[in-house]
Amino acid sequence: MKRITxxxxxxxxxxxxxxxxxxxxxxxxxxxxxxxxxAIQAIHTHxxxxxxxxxxxxxxxGYEVTRQIRGQHQMPIIFLSAKTSDMDKITGLVMGxxxxxxxxxxxxxLVARVNAQLRRxxxxxxxxxxxxxxxIEMGGLVIDSDQRSISLYGEAIELTPKEFDILYLLASYxxxxxxxxxxxxxxxxxNYLESGNTVMVHIAMVRKKLGEDKNKNKxxxxxxxVGYTFNG
Length: 232
Known about the structure:
Helices cover 43% and strands 20% of the residues. By secondary structure, the chain is α/β, with parallel strands linked by helices. The protein has a five-stranded parallel beta sheet with strand order 2-1-3-4-5, with helices on both faces. A four-stranded antiparallel beta sheet has the order 6-7-8-9, covered by helices on one side. Strands 10-11 form a two-stranded antiparallel sheet. The model has no long low-confidence stretch (mean pLDDT 86). Pfam families: Response_reg, Trans_reg_C. Residues 5-118 form the Response regulatory domain.
């Protein structure tokens, strides 16, 4: 069985060592990077299954590292940062992170979140390797779950992994209403008290990328007080 490799990118050696200690006990193979450039180099030269990423690093910050990763890879990314404002969290998630934890942190909670992200990633990979992979086509919108690609009237639309998963979930069950909590449970694979705001931010980004505004939510319709539905 392939050993799971986790990359820890943090310029604070004590924090990286602490995370390595706890994750090594779980049987994971750990790589460490002290700055953004080292993180990108590690991803180019190793098969990385999950990245734990600080934002404020020398040479290249975590946002830029995430942008470069998402250009080629789909592995889970967990931000672990001293930046604690809601806007910092929203920015991290919008950039393509799968989770966001603030420092100081509980190492056991981080381990639990790592396990949850890896479990969900493996389930997605298994589903992608199946013999049937539906392509959803509605009104000029094409969603290919095999290629994990979106096009609208022939033009490619770039979505983050979570944005894709949300749109694909809703489009797979047109007219069915999903609450924010339902969406979070399906897409993130766990319960989370702040799921409502997280889902709302991701849906807002999907709408923006699909060229929708507050007055014309063509593809994703808000059912006030209930949740969201695909309106294709």
